[in-house]
Amino acid sequence: MDTIAIVGAGFSGAVLARELAESGYRPRVFDNRSHVAGNCHTERDDESGVMVHKYGPHIFHTDNERVWQYLNRFTEFMPYTNRVKTTSQGRVFSLPINLHTINQFFGKTFSPSEAKDFLESQADLTIDDPQTFEEQALRFVGPSLYEAFFKGYTQKQWGCSPTKLPSSILKRLPVRFNYDDNYFFHRYQGMPKDGYTAMIEKILDHENIDVNLEYSFTREQSTQFDHVFYSGPIDGYFDFQLGRLGYRTLDF
């Protein structure tokens, strides 16, 4: 039988290992950290009992019923709706930008169609083909909303100027002309009741899976296996021969 190495004990590595194990294979899973679950790792604080997301919050959401049912084999999900608030100019607003945000920010009482027409009037129509994040924002929401809600946050999040980012990033952020302040559109949303780490541990709990933590897998070791599935930073896998990939701002 083929020998299989899976590098990374996060979501993708764990699910892949489980599927292979249930098909009769014996995958070996490697991770250089002391825990599974990757950047979704969670720990319960001893004093408060609060489940802490050690590398930043993760909210599970999907429209795929098969995915939802699959994960419910390994955890119970607690209902969670992500409703984001932000401050700008000394006031609190809802994100993503929705009809309430627009009316509150501009001091208006627009209907959905009026708000849409108003934003179109704010847009920089001289930008025909937006190439950067900033151009995309100016073209579709105008300078006021861009300066208030997108520019500073984007620079902080990505670690570079919005003029250096592709326009496709902004296309993922919705603008709604209704009062829906649910950040995600997806039908299934929630948090694992016992945390992500407990869920990943259950996914990996199979007699055919061999988990190796605090193990730094190198590219040279790939020759020892018939197949290697690598879910770590791809620039690191190639020893940063072409430098570090841009936009990777994870720094723990």
Describe the protein's architecture and organization.
There is one protein chain. The chain has 252 residues and is an alpha/beta fold. It has 2 domains: 4-80 and 189-237, 3-Layer(aba) Sandwich (Rossmann fold), CATH 3.40.50.720; 84-171, no CATH class. It is built from 9 helices and 11 strands. It has helices at 11-22, 65-71, 99-106, 112-122, 133-140, 142-158, 168-171, 196-204, 234-237, and strands at residues 4-7, 28-31, 42-44, 51-53, 60-62, 77-79, 84-88, 91-95, 188-192, 210-213, 227-230. The strands form 4 sheets. The protein has a 4-stranded parallel sheet with strand order 10-2-1-11, covered by helices on one side. Helix 1 runs parallel beside helix 8. The radius of gyration is 22 Å and the shape is globular. The two termini are 38 Å apart. The mean pLDDT is 93.
| Poorly predicted spans | none
Radius of gyration: 22 Å
- What is the first-to-last residue Cα distance? 38 Å
Shape: globular
Q: What kind of assembly state do the chains in view correspond to?
A: single chain
Question: How many distinct beta strands?
Answer: 11
CATH fold assignment of the largest domain: Rossmann fold
CATH-defined superfamily of the largest domain: NAD(P)-binding Rossmann-like Domain
Order of helices and strands: EHEEEEHEEEHHHHHEHEEH
What structural category arises from helix and sheet content? alpha/beta
Overall mean pLDDT stands at 93
Strand content: 15-25%
Helices, by number, come to 9
Q: Assign the CATH class of the largest domain.
A: Alpha Beta
Q: Into how many domains do the coordinates divide?
A: 2
- Largest sheet entry: 4 strands, parallel
